[in-house]
Amino acid sequence: MNEYKMETTTLLENYNQKEESQTAEHWTEVIRPQSGWLDIHLRDVWRYRDLLMLLVRRDFVATYKQTLLGPLWIFIQPILVSLTYVVIFSKVAHLSSDGLPPILFYLAGITCWNYFASCLNTTANTFIANAHIFGKVYFPRLVMPLSVSISNLVKFFIQFGLLIIMVVWYAIKGVHIAVNAYLLLLPLFLLIMAGLSLGFGIIVSSLTTKYRDLSYLVTFSVQLLMYASPVVYPLSSVPAGKLRTLLMANPMSGPIEAFKYALLGKGYFSWQLLGYDFSFMVLVLLIGILLFNRIEKTFMDTV
C-alpha cells in the first residue's frame, strides 16, 4: 500500500513538473477558492486528460503487480463465481436461467455486475484512499473517480471477450443463442452502469469524510443490491405485481436485462425502462458531482 501511494504521488508530482516546465512563465492555471455549487470546472478535467490516462494505466497495472497469476484473475474470478452460482442457484435452488445454459446466463450477469460493483466500491473510497495525494498536489479531483471507471472498463471488455468465446462455444455445440442488433446499444448500457456507479460512489465518498462507517456499509449494501438485480435470476421469472415493479425500479435491472437480451436473445428489453434508468443515472450523477465539488474544498479539514 505504501509503495502504491508513493508511486501515485510521484506520478502526479512528475506530471505537474512537466506542465510547469512546458508553460514556463506563461500562466495557464489560476487557483481560486470555489464560490458556488455550480463552480465545477469540468474544463480542467479535459485539460488533465493525459493525467487521467496515466492514472488508468496505473490502476490497471498496480492491481496485479504483486500477484502470481497477474491479469489472469480477470478471467478466473468470474468463471469461479459463475460455477458457484451454477451449483447453488441452478442445481440446488433450481432457479430459472431463462432457457439458457446456466454458466452462460450467470456469466453474462456477473460481467455487468462486476463492472458496476468494482467502480462503486473503489470510487466510494476516493477521498479517504487519496487524502495523502490531495493534500500535496493540485489536479482536478474528479480525475480520480473517472480513472476508476475507465480502468474497470478495460476489465469489462476482457471479461466480455470471455463471454463471447463462451457464446461461440455453445453455438458450435448446437445451442440456439439469438445474438441481435441491440448489441450495438452496448455503449448505452455501459454509460448507464458507469454513471450510476460514479454518481453513487462520489456521493458516498463525499459523505465518508465525516461519517466513516459509511465505507463499511457500502460493501455490504452492494452485495445485497445484487440480489435485487436480475443477476442470478431472470426478470421473467418474477410474476407481475409489487415485487416485479420494485425490482424494475432498481436502475441496474434495465441495463443488465437489456445486455442479456442483446447478447443471448433472452431477457427483458424496454425503451421505457432504459429511459427511466438513464434519467435516474443523470440525476444521481449530477447530485454526486455537485456534492463532490462542494466537499472537495473542506475535506482535508475533516479527514
How are helices and strands ordered from N to C? HHHHHHHHHHHHHH
Cα(first) to Cα(last) distance is: 18 Å
Oligomer: single chain
Percent helix among the residues? 55-70%
Question: Could you give a quick summary of the protein structure above?
Answer:
69% of the residues lie in helices and 0% in strands.
Structure write-up:
The chain has helices at residues 2-23, 42-47, 49-63, 73-92, 102-123, 126-129, 131-134, 143-172, 186-207, 214-227, 242-249, 253-264, 271-296, 299-302. It is globular and about 60 Å long. The relative contact order is 0.13. 69% of the residues lie in helices and 0% in strands. The protein is mainly alpha-helical. It has one domain (2-302). It contains 14 helices and no strands. The model has no long low-confidence stretch (mean pLDDT 81).
Which tags fit this structure?
single chain; 303 residues; mainly alpha
List the SSEs and their pairings.
Elements: H1 2-23, H2 42-47, H3 49-63, H4 73-92, H5 102-123, H6 126-129, H7 131-134, H8 143-172, H9 186-207, H10 214-227, H11 242-249, H12 253-264, H13 271-296, H14 299-302
